[in-house]
Specification:
Largest sheet of chain C: 2 strands, antiparallel
Chains: A mainly alpha, B mainly alpha, C mainly alpha
CATH class of chain B: Mainly Alpha
Radius of gyration of chain B: 23 Å
Oligomer: heterotrimer
Strand content of chain C: 5-15%
Number of strands of chain C: 6
Distance between the termini of chain C: 58 Å
Shape of chain C: elongated
CATH architecture of chain B: Up-down Bundle
Order of helices and strands of chain C: EEHHHHHHEEEEH
Helix content of chain C: 55-70%
Shape of chain B: globular
CATH topology of chain B: Cytochrome C Oxidase, Chain A
Number of domains of chain B: 1
Low-confidence stretches of chain B: none
Number of helices of chain B: 16
CATH superfamily of chain B: Cytochrome c oxidase-like, subunit I domain
Structural class of chain B: mainly alpha
Number of strands of chain B: 2
Mean pLDDT of chain B: 92
Number of helices of chain C: 7
Mean pLDDT of chain C: 84
Structural class of chain C: mainly alpha
Helix content of chain B: 55-70%
Chain lengths: ~100, ~550, ~270
């Protein structure tokens, strides 16, 4: 909680969970490399980014313990991602860029 | 606000006199006490400010007559406005009130002993000084600087002056700014004293909190942009340089993604200070606490989405121009909410016109002019006419000097007795304020008109038809500078020979007034607890 | 660990600066905020990438074929593995297994080294083919490809720098943990000053058996305090023993996340 000077420690994640997540990450990497060989036109970008997002949420949630943190950490992270998305989105409204 | 500092005695020495690990100057530059760091920022910023003022004085003097007046080489004039801009922006208004008064009062106002990371705080100040030194050194090595403070590509890639070093200096300053921001956010989240709920935080704390978020989210974009320009200069990576396939307009986007929110880094803490001064001198609880607190966050949010209004004439797409113009008009809403709430607080208050209040009222007046002229430039058609004229320069000075500058001086007069335990001569302070207010308007309102008539900015020479205007403006600059010098002199004298200040000279109710003047090392003699609203005046007549 | 007041001249309390309480959540919050700034630092580059790629769609595809997919994939696996060892080392530390934690950190650093080694070969291979910023060879290519390689060098270069910083951070951590007996607890018996004169202090275990005996306390005693240095072990480990390692780990994982995006954006768009 915000008040008080917390001495409480973090959540302990088991060795097994981490190894499971690592295997999942390796499989996702294999998947994305395999799919890149197939021509899906514009879709291929989307699949590559979707896989990257899944991998990122695994690393964030489990490896970085975000899943087990106070809610304020998650809210802040969301704010940051939304901000970056808005920056990118608004820059894209400028159609004259890089022509 | 009721502050319980149970069993207060006069036992502890204040922060200026406690026994430190080092003595002399080292007891300052190696101190991790947030109050000493705040004072160090204040002193360094005001020093840079006076240097900037001196450069501005020379510029105005040069514009007294067409053709060469006191400077024979136009390149020197270019150098002077560049240095004036770099110093005033990066070394005075961006650290502004957040680094000085934020450092000093944020922990006190939430009842904490210090910030969350005191050592990091000291590191921020050192980075600030190192960055300042590098940036200034670049100006005197390798030719006269001539890029303006905006470092626009492609010119900043091609010029032979020492731009790489200047960029590196600003990069370090950005790092300092980021560390201060993350320190303050953590402090507000983790260090509030018992009873100091979010809804009880003084509005200055809300403003600092919102500003810290902008520092965290926007400054890194400037960092990477400057880094890319450095890489462009050293290696030629071709991201911005049109000669190598890059797009210079992309630079402008990235630069303003930071640099527009940066003006809110400058103005938000100023608004926070005004929100403190007005209730104290109107003896009334602030009108619309939640709206002022919320509008700080709203300004932080909307302010981050309007950057391309600096680029309407840079050839950006029509769709983008319309969207950014609309967003620019939207950002005026939360600013206006603040102004209305301040004025409503004054209504039926028992107003005392003492120096801090005079500065606060001047702020509202000047900032309103600055805000309205800003909206004019936010309108697409009008901006074509006004872009790159004196109108922009005058608008900017109304917001940044009339706004942040006057608020900083107001805050200085408001908190000076608390920080140093001395009172200044209020009569001289009032005269200084009057000189500054008059001089300011004579100088910058004339520039607004000149801009409207078509006088372009950053020009060394001008057509004779503008001379009358320039003479008036230059005379205004003399009045303004006289006021500034009188103010600084008055405060310096007070520091040495001022009367001892009481703990609560103005009858304020926020937490800083419940401790001694100056406060002891860990701010309160006993850990305080809080109850009640932040602006509950005991004497206020129930209505 | 609140304010430390030591009696000074005239009985007046003198405070010392920066004696700080420990706040586990606060430290992690500070680190996360720093990570956000790193995210936005790379964010600026991602904006540039998104714009240029949108405009030079075809050129980016052609240019990406020049990158070595096999080396890129190997590097991805290496970094993912390093993230695993990093995460494992924190669990080991939380369980009080200091030795295992140190070895896992060392393994993480070695993975980082392998990553940089492969990256070095990739870069030198490109440079020997004349593909480097502002090279005459590169300038002959269409502008889209010039932009691709400009961003490639800027982004992987900045990422590599972060790997290097992370490695240094982790080496420091490994040394700190390996040497760590440094958590100090002080106890000061209340109001015991006068009554303790002439007594002999001792530390006893749970059964009352003495572990240590001190000398006799003399008459002029002003204060008595006992300082205990603890090695973190399975039963005595506390958050203050591993929060720095956790924060260093967070930094390392962030570097991994950046790569998770760089890999498809540069290597997989052929």
């Amino acid at each position: 909680m915000a008040h008080g000077h917390s001495e409480k420690g973090g959540h302990i994640v088991s060795y097994g969970t981490f190894i499971g997540v690592w295997l999942a990450l390796l499989m996702l990497t294999a998947l994305t490399v395999a799919v890149s060989g197939v021509d899906l036109k514009r879709l291929s970008v989307l699949t590559a980014l979707a896989v990257a997002c899944i991998k990122t949420s695994l690393v964030l949630g489990i490896f970085m313990h975000l899943k087990y943190e106070d809610r304020i950490f998650k809210v802040m992270f969301l704010v940051v991602v939304v901000t970056l998305a808005i920056f990118i989105g608004l820059t894209f409204t400028d159609t004259t860029l890089a022509r | 606000m009721a502050v319980d500092v149970a069993g207060r005695s006069q036992g502890l020495p204040d922060y200026l006199n406690h026994r430190a690990a080092y003595s002399g100057i080292l007891s300052w530059v190696l101190s991790t006490d947030h109050k000493r760091i705040g004072v160090m920022y204040l002193v360094s910023q005001l020093t840079f400010f006076l240097v900037g003022v001196a450069l501005g004085f020379v510029m105005r003097l040069e514009m007294l007559t067409p053709g060469p007046t006191v400077i024979s080489n136009p390149a020197v004039y270019n150098a002077i406005f560049t240095v004036h801009g770099v110093i005033m922006i990066f070394l005075f208004v961006i650290p502004g009130l957040i680094a000085s008064f934020g450092n000093f009062f944020l922990p006190i106002m939430i009842g904490a002993k210090d910030v969350a990371f005191p050592f990091l705080n000291l590191l921020s100040w050192w980075l600030f000084m190192i960055g300042a030194f590098v940036a200034i050194a670049s100006l005197f090595t390798g030719g006269l600087p001539d890029t303006g403070w905006t470092f626009y590509v492609p010119y900043s890639i091609q010029t032979n002056t020492n731009t790489t070093l200047a960029l590196f200096g600003v990069f370090i300053l950005g790092f300092s700014s980021i560390l201060t921001g993350l320190n303050f956010v953590t402090t507000v989240h983790q260090m509030r004293a018992p009873g100091m709920r979010w809804g009880r935080m003084p509005l200055f704390v809300w403003a600092i909190y919102a500003t810290s978020w902008i520092q965290i989210l926007a400054t890194p974009i400037l960092g990477i942009t400057l880094l890319l320009v450095m890489l462009e200069r050293v290696l030629g990576i071709g991201v911005f340089d049109p000669a190598r396939g890059g797009d210079p307009v992309l630079y402008q986007h990235l630069f303003w993604i930071y640099s527009h929110p940066a003006v809110y880094i400058m103005i938000l803490p100023a608004m926070g200070a005004i929100s403190e001064i007005i209730p104290t001198f109107a003896r009334r609880t602030i009108f619309g606490y939640k709206f002022i607190a919320g509008s700080s966050l709203a300004i932080a949010l909307f302010g981050s989405l309007v950057w391309a209004h600096h680029m309407f004439t840079a050839g950006i797409g029509e769709r983008a121009a319309v969207i950014f113009s609309l967003l620019t008009f939207l950002v005026a809403v939360p600013s206006a909410i603040k102004v209305f709430n301040w004025v409503s607080t004054l209504y039926r208050g028992s107003i005392e016109l003492r120096p801090p209040m005079l500065f606060a009222l001047a702020f509202i007046f000047l900032f309103s002019i600055g805000g309205f002229t800003g909206l004019m430039q936010g309108a697409l058609a009008l901006d074509i006419h006004l872009h790159d004229t004196y109108f922009v320069v005058a608008h900017f000075h109304y917001v940044m000097f009339g706004g942040t500058g006057f608020a900083l001086f107001g805050a200085l007069h408001y908190w000076f007795p608390k920080m140093f335990g001395r009172m200044y001569n209020e009569k001289i302070a009032t005269i200084a304020w009057a000189l500054m207010f008059v001089g300011f308007n004579v100088l910058y309102f004339t520039m607004l008109l000149m801009g409207w008539l078509g006088m372009p900015r950053r020009y060394y020479d001008y057509l004779p038809q503008y001379q009358t205007w320039h003479v008036v403006a230059t005379v205004g600059s003399w009045i303004l500078i006289a006021g500034v010098l009188l103010m600084v002199g008055n405060l310096l004298v007070a520091l040495k020979r001022g009367e001892k200040a009481p703990d609560n000279p103005w009858g304020g109710v926020t937490p800083e007034w419940s401790t001694t003047s100056p406060p002891p090392l860990e701010n309160f003699e006993k850990a305080p607890t809080f109850s009640g609203g932040p602006y509950d005046f005991p004497t206020e007549v129930a209505r | 660990m609140s304010q430390t007041a030591t009696p000074g001249a005239g009985g007046q309390a003198v405070l010392r600066e920066a004696e700080h309480h420990f706040d586990y959540t606060g430290r992690k919050l500070g680190m996360w905020l720093f990570l956000f700034t790193e995210l936005l630092l790379f964010g600026g580059l991602f904006i540039a990438y998104a714009i240029y790629r949108h405009v030079n769609f075809a050129d980016f595809h052609v240019a990406a074929k020049d990158l070595d997919l096999v080396l890129g994939t190997i590097n991805t696996v290496i970094l993912l593995t390093s993230s695993l060892t990093m995460a494992l080392s924190i669990t080991a530390m939380q369980k009080g297994n200091r030795k295992l934690a140190v070895w896992l950190v060392v393994l993480t650093v070695l993975c980082g080294l392998a990553f940089l080694f492969i990256k070095y070969f990739e870069w030198t291979a490109k440079i020997s083919h004349g593909i480097y910023p502002a090279s005459p060879e590169l300038m002959k290519l269409p502008p889209g490809e010039v932009r691709f390689f400009g961003l490639y060098y800027a982004m992987t270069g900045l990422h590599g720098l972060h790997v290097l910083i992370g490695m240094i951070l982790l080496i420091v951590m490994a040394v700190v943990i390996a040497r760590k007996p440094s958590r100090v607890h002080s106890f000061r018996p209340d109001d015991a000053d006068e009554t303790m004169a002439g007594a002999r202090p001792a530390i006893v275990d749970g059964d009352g058996k003495p572990l240590w005996k001190g000398g006799i306390i003399d008459e002029n005693v002003e204060q008595v305090s006992v300082v205990v240095r603890l090695k973190p072990g399975p039963h005595t480990i506390q958050p203050s023993d591993y929060v720095s390692l956790e924060n260093a780990g967070l930094y390392w994982h962030l570097v991994d996340i950046i790569w998770i995006f760089l890999f498809p954006l540069f290597y997989l768009i052929t």
